[in-house]
Amino acid sequence: MELLAPAGSWDAFLAALANGADAVYLGGKSFSARQAAENFSEEEIIKASEHAHLREKKIYITVNTLIDNEEFGAVLDYIFFLYNTGVDGIIIQDLGLLDAIKTIFPHFRVHASTQMTVHNSPGVRFLQDKGIKRVVLAREMKLDELKIIRREAPDMELEVFVHGALCYSYSGQCLFSSMVGGRSGNRGRCAQPCRLPYKLYSRQSPRGKEISSTGKYLLSPSDLSLIDYLPELQKTGINSLKIEGRMKRPEYVATVTRAYREALDMLESGGEYQISENIKAQLLKIFNRNFTSACLFPGNNEILNFQRPNNRGVYIGRVLQQGKDFLTRIKLSSSVSLGDGLEIWVARGKGPAFVLREMTVDGQAAESAEKGEIIEVKLDGPAGSADRVFKTRDEELMSAAARSIQMSTERKIGIDVEAFLMKNEPLKLQCRDQEGNEAEVFTRTPARQADKHPLDTDTLRSKLDRLGNTPFEIKNFVLNTDNEELIIPFSEINEARRQASEELLRIRLQDYAWPVLDKKRFRDLKGKYMYSGKHKASRKKQIPLLSITVSGTEEARVALDSGADRVYFALEGIGEKPPLNSGQLSELICRAREAGSELIPLLPRIQKAGEERETAKLLSESGAVSIMVANIGALKSGLDKHFSLRGDYSLNVFNFYSMRTLLNLGLQEMCLSPELNFSQLKNFEHLDKAELLIHGEIILLISEHCILPYVLGRKDEKCLQHCRKNSYYLKDEKGYEFPVATDNNCRFYLFNSRTLCLIDDLEKIISLGPGSVRIEARRSSISQIRTMLKIYREALDKLGRGEKTDLTLYKEELAGIAASDFTKGHYYRGVL
Q1: Which CATH number fits domain 545-697+754-807: 3.20.20.70, 3.40.50.150, 3.30.930.10, 3.40.50.360?
Q2: Which CATH architecture has domain 314-405?
Q3: Average confidence (pLDDT) over 53-59
Q4: How far, in Å, CA of 514 to CA of 87, rounded?
């Protein structure tokens, strides 16, 4: 299995290679899902690619953000640069970019980012059909689910995360940072709102009475660590093990990579696989929020960490007492050294955190102290007796990691040089590396008799040894000569040395080059692929269809009776809605047809193997012919079964090229990303094939991990179904209330604290020419659905007849039934 390490900086890149990574992934200054990392300039990418390939390591570049229409030309130029640099592959999220790459750069190796939310076999097969060579699977996969995917997609490379930070939401399905702060996780700028404090409340409890008592970081996951389970992943057939951490320090990358390298070497040796306590201790010391195996083996570990959202370190003792001027005595349960970072967990407020600069043991200054000893340190704040002390920085570990990076910068590739110095012949140099690659060069002028200071072995080697700016160093040197009184100009020796190193470098790197694509050919292909915008000016100013999403059968009936042209029935069953049966679905489809409208099953965003089969059975038995898909696995299945297809906004269509890709596959229409603004929407062609969200509660995230059993009942008990008995919301420190809900598979949903409302912008929406506009009403009551549809139906009809109408009056009426205050989402502000 490949060990794939992260690099957010040059030192982290060196740390990864120096500590045993087989491959490194990193991002450029743009189009990367970790925009807050230092990242790499184009010059640094060239340098990193050379450095890795000379050491027979691989380098993958992340281009894993959604791409704006206006950025598309620039991102293709960037891909052209990466292609010609010879990087081993790129990691992407955007479906339009995938189509462009496979059209313009058909040979380039492409990996599907975890941002694509791939979690089932049809999703893997869809990407395989599109030329993807490797899929980075969702982090929420169970071991049995990985086995199913491996069995049903045997030829696809599979990559899984094995260590590092977890997202609370499925990657690619989170709008939390975007909607709350305008910083889009899909665009690489997540502000990590899930790491902030929240309180849980019940709508049925007395107003203002908090019901959460387990800690305040209710959406903060522990860190992933699968080092104990590498044999299981190997047996499953996983190809690549990925360490998360492009935002982490080089020392973190060094320590974690080294730990997993040692584990893999142990696994490959064929002996007993037993991770030492020392390795586990190093992983804890370098950074942890507690460790979890996440979903790999469900139910056997703590996935959520309510107490702290940041590094907790390792427990090393307790405070005995604190005296005057905060002079504090601590009884150690583990060793400490000067330079270590310590933090004291106090009962209330923020405890002292400090670097240990000085301490005493038995009244004497000490540089280190061992388990069982009592140290005395001066703090800058109060601490109480029995308060716990944690080490958050281990100086010894950090120093060892720094040394490995330094050694990497000094390490050269050894070569053997054989020189042939014959009278009246040019000097010939033969340079060979350990892999057998050979470069042969000659000086321009022949050797001649020396008047004085002839070349000898030591002199010639000293001239050839000046390889400081190259990756090579001479290990063995042999001089063959038929005359010991010969000389060659030193300038020509230096030039021969330069030519030899360049030729050997070229030979070693030639296998990493992709088939030649010159600039003219690239520009021609790019020009043909990019759209002209000719359809933007000729948009039909038609009145769009009115769609609505509901979760219950009675809600669907009311929607059909209240003027909806199209009703999407969300099959995940959010809230208290029971699963829909085929008879009910068939009856609703017939009822819609009789009313001159449509009822379309909206498939869940997440469909694991068993769930996928249940949905297929439901659709088959109901006679449904049209569906809306919300993940690329469902897209693949729908295409294979020849359904009439529409795409939900969870497919993250952020540019026209993604839209065109899906239309070319046969989709009838797609709901565009709610992260788009009016200016961006104006740059779309064929908006008559698009649907825009205009009202309702937007899903901010979907998680495999429901917090309610943890907060309201013991997590090791059978689920007490709190979600069916009550209605809950989270409140942040600013007082915003975010409704929560679960579905029929106990997945957890967080909704926006504000209701989207574009009623007073309907004329502007209509001017864009969308095929339909949509109300999100998964949590709405029957009366709310009836009122929302009545208002929007009436407003659209009046605008269609050219009647003047005061849309603000409709807004006031909608405000009277809304679950929260209104927002216009990103239609005016957009996202970073």
Answers
A1: 3.20.20.70
A2: Beta Barrel (2.40)
A3: 95
A4: 9
